[in-house]
Amino acid sequence: MLQTEPLEARLTTSVADGDSLRYYPAYDVPARARLAPQPPVAAAAAAQLLLAQRLDGSLTIGDTHAYDEPFAFDLDEAPYLHLMERAERLLGSPLPPVRRRWAGVYSQVTGSDIYLRGHVAPGVHLVTGPGGRGMTLAPAIAEQTFGK
């Protein structure tokens, strides 16, 4: 993931490219098979363009995935260059300079559950394992955890 300096233009929505359709079970529909092959650099990094503008105008851009352990401790620049070039094509303008980069590690359950939830002590709930779906699942997790 990376964050740029502020973009002068304001985006009215978040942006995702067609590669996002490759990685989420909800999009496993027949039309997905008609997607053009990914460039090799994107396929090797399980890359998808996710772009969101922050309140200060900067952009958050990602996303790459690594599933095979042991995980590398370093970042490969090629997938990020691919994502930045893709963002520039979609926005129709050069990106502002990169402010910072980071790599996230998401715990993800490997069984049939979407996440792991447990009541570990009075008033203490443990929720983990949604992988990179935490922000999307947060309302449902909160309702199932605290709405009862």
**Which stretches are poorly predicted, pLDDT < 50 over at least 5 residues?**
none
How are the strands of the biggest sheet laid out side by side? 2-3-4-1-5
Cα(first) to Cα(last) distance is 36 Å
Specify the biggest β-sheet: 5 strands, antiparallel
Which structural class do the helices and strands define?
alpha+beta
Tell me, briefly, the overall form: globular
Helix content bin: 10-25%
The count of domains is 2
Count the E strands: 7
Radius of gyration, in Å, reads: 17 Å
Mean pLDDT: 88
With helices defined by DSSP (H or I, 4 residues minimum), what is the helix count? Answer: 3
Strand content: 15-25%
* Strand and helix order: EEHEEHEEEH
Structure description:
The protein is α+β, with helices and mostly antiparallel strands and 148 residues long. The protein has two domains: 2-101, no CATH class; 116-146, no CATH class. 22% of the residues lie in helices and 21% in strands. It has helices at 40-44, 77-91, 134-146, and strands at 2-6, 15-16, 50-53, 58-62, 98-101, 116-121, 124-128. A hairpin with a 4-residue loop joins strand 3 (50-53) and strand 4. The longest helix has 15 residues, at 77-91. The protein is globular and about 50 Å long. The termini are far apart.
Summary keywords:
about 150 residues, alpha+beta, 2 domains, five-stranded antiparallel beta sheet, two-stranded antiparallel ribbon, 3 helices, 7 strands, about 20% helix, about 20% strand, globular
Task: Give the topology, please.
Blueprint: E1 2-6, E2 15-16, H1 40-44, E3 50-53, E4 58-62, H2 77-91, E5 98-101, E6 116-121, E7 124-128, H3 134-146
Antiparallel strand pairs: 1-4, 1-5, 2-3, 3-4, 6-7
